[in-house]
Structure to design on (414 residues):
């Protein structure tokens, strides 16, 4: 049973004691390193034979798909035999990767995603509580506490404008007026809901509680946006004139996506991010790829299709590796950005060729965890460890007071 304090913390409500001289110590006043969370995903999984290393021994050999991680291998943990045990939704599992809950069967708030728990913990300390982008189609893996799916940007240049380009004065004034109007409407409907609260039965009261939760979320969002309205956006070194051939020009779009996340981290525009590569059957513009992506995942073990699929899988990891190296090479007061940023990579599909949701391809990097291993998460019972155990540990490291996240059975030692 979660304590009231844990519930408040997970909901993004911060209650702080006043500063008391009698309890102030050096530990109280020391500045702690920031914590950040990045969740990267591939909607169509990874080819298992080329992804997972062959041994769990120290100094294990990186698999063909993971070769590009060599420069940062001591900052990376590869995990085998972990998944969401209750998920059997084939491609639909991309919606539940960060929650471990089937979104179609969940009630409001029952499938909040790990990134949104972290975002609620940070709140509007940053301009954006969380930032979301997905190339090649939405994945829909981020869900708020009231069960609303979080929108993802699909264009790196649109994301650049959102993060770093100051809106025209007319647009800012229009947004200010719109936020004020939204706040007034919320005041009105909240008052109406409160008046109903004492006169409804237990069933209706539960529905009313869900409604009030959504109102509180909206109020928090509006108040946060209002606070940041007149604060200038940071200026960054980014070439926004780069043009892609189209939405499948991943060789251009993917580096832009990761560069923008790096700049958003460096400028403290947000501390929570999701990014990734969506599900589709278009031909991704990479050398050696001539067949639609979804079709390649159903390769039937044909060598030509497997070769193309592994080119795509390796490209995804190469892009992440480049991002990790850039974080590691950026020094901070407490070490480097990678030490302060936990980077999760995964997919809701373990083997897309069989529509399997078991044994997911998972990587955790940075964040101050112990790394450098290929970890076997198979339990003594012969069952795979729930992925939400890892998410519980990540949230605890992030600073959230939580015993277990969603349907976790505990934590994961890493």
């Amino acid at each position: 049973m979660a304590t009231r304090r844990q519930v408040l913390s997970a909901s993004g409500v911060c209650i702080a004691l006043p500063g008391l001289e009698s309890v102030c110590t050096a530990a109280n006043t020391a500045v702690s390193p920031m914590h950040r969370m990045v969740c990267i995903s591939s909607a169509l999984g990874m080819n298992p034979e080329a992804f997972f290393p062959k041994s769990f021994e120290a100094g294990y050999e990186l698999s063909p798909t993971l070769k590009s991680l060599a420069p940062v291998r001591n900052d990376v943990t590869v995990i085998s035999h972990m998944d969401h045990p209750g998920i059997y939704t084939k491609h639909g599992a991309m919606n539940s990767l960060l929650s471990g809950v089937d979104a179609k069967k969940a009630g409001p708030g029952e499938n909040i995603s790990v990134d949104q728990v972290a975002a609620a913990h940070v709140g509007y300390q940053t301009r954006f509580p969380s930032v979301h982008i997905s190339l090649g189609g939405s994945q829909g893996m981020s869900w708020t506490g009231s069960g609303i799916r979080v929108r993802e940007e699909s264009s790196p240049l649109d994301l650049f404008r959102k993060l770093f380009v100051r809106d025209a004065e007319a647009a800012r004034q229009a947004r200010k007026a719109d936020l004020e109007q939204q706040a007034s409407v919320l005041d009105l409907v909240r008052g109406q809901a409160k008046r109903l609260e004492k006169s409804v039965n237990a069933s209706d009261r539960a529905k009313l509680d869900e409604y009030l939760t959504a109102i509180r979320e909206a109020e928090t969002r509006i108040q946060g946006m209002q606070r940041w309205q007149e604060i200038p956006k940071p200026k960054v070194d980014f070439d926004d004139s780069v043009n892609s051939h189209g939405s499948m020009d991943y060789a251009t779009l993917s580096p832009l996506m990761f560069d923008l996340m790096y700049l958003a981290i460096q400028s403290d525009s947000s501390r929570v991010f999701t990014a990734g590569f969506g599900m589709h059957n278009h031909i991704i513009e990479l050398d050696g790829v001539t067949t639609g992506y979804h079709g390649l995942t159903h390769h039937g073990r044909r060598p030509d299709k497997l070769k193309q699929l592994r080119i795509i899988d390796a490209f995804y990891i190469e892009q992440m590796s480049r991002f990790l190296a850039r974080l590691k090479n950026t020094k901070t007061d407490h070490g480097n950005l990678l030490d302060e940023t936990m980077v999760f990579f995964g997919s809701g599909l373990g083997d897309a060729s069989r529509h399997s949701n078991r044994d997911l391809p998972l990587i955790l990097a940075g964040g101050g965890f112990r790394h450098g291993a290929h970890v076997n998460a198979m339990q003594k019972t012969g069952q795979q460890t729930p992925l939400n155990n890892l998410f519980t540990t990540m949230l605890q490291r992030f600073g959230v007071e939580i015993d277990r996240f969603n349907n976790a059975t505990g934590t994961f030692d890493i």
Summary: Residues 168-231 form one domain. The longest strand covers residues 36-42. The longest helix spans residues 169-196.
